[in-house]
């Protein structure tokens, strides 16, 4: 959307309804630099910023670079050691009516830069063309992709006829698992394809895990298979996201935002949409990490809400069936929230 000569803005509202999963995208009039809230900016559909004068501000905790345009609007935030970038764009409202009455409205569009950020990286040859494209990009980002696997999300297939999106189960029923459904459902199980990983691991999909994603498999589907972030086949240190939640949290790539002290984390101010969040999910609360999710943002009640794939909802959700999907408050998951990382 662009501003006309007489100063009147057009408003575009797109509502996507898929059997209980709703995303509303609205392009709103821009605000002046004096009234724009932090993070507001022209976004997908806006004019190119290629000729605009940019301002770069270094911030701490975590170390990052904030990019503003000539009008003072925040365009993007790049975090040291991480590839995920918060690009400001049109506000979207995410809802999941079947499992929660809450909604999350955000102007964040989470993209992947081609390389981890470091101070001064704005001088690199890739930076300006990448930013110019990202500011005008309305293709699915990490948050929209995560919505592709919620309850009753519509099936989508690639050119070869393989389904790559649509309602995902957590895993097959299992009497041996204390939660009632088996884990070990990675992205290749959902797809039903064999996979060779750069660290030498070869995997074959389990037939009874077809169309299933456990908690870390969901993250690997969103960031790995769909967004092309490197993946590891093992739980070892090295380039790419490892397989299990404890490995992602402990020695995964990116910037560690909240270290695991064994106590419930409460430093919500460091979080940014798209961050990975990690939880204890053992018989007793403690320092071990057994569960993972993706931070969605602050909901309409002021709570910090996250996506994760869980047994009782039988797949990815940011709803409250079987426990509120909140990092704060008195609920189960808030008491088990231990760590966060930005990849």
TrEMBL record:
* Source species, domain of life: Bacteria
Give the transmembrane region(s): 7-27
- Keyword Transmembrane helix listed? The answer is yes
Ordered alphabetically, the record's keywords are: Hydrolase, Membrane, Protease, Thiol protease, Transmembrane, Transmembrane helix
Query: What is an example of a Pfam family matching this protein?
Result: NLPC_P60
Domain (NlpC/P60) ranges: 177-343
Q: Where do the coiled-coil regions begin and end?
A: none
* InterPro entries, per database record: NLP_P60_dom, Papain-like_cys_pep_sf
Any keyword Hydrolase? yes
Identify the PROSITE patterns for this entry: NLPC_P60
Similarity-based family = Belongs to the peptidase C40 family.
This one is known as C40 family peptidase
- In its UniProt entry, the species of origin is given as Micromonospora antibiotica
Upper lineage ranks? Bacteria, Bacillati, Actinomycetota, Actinomycetes, Micromonosporales
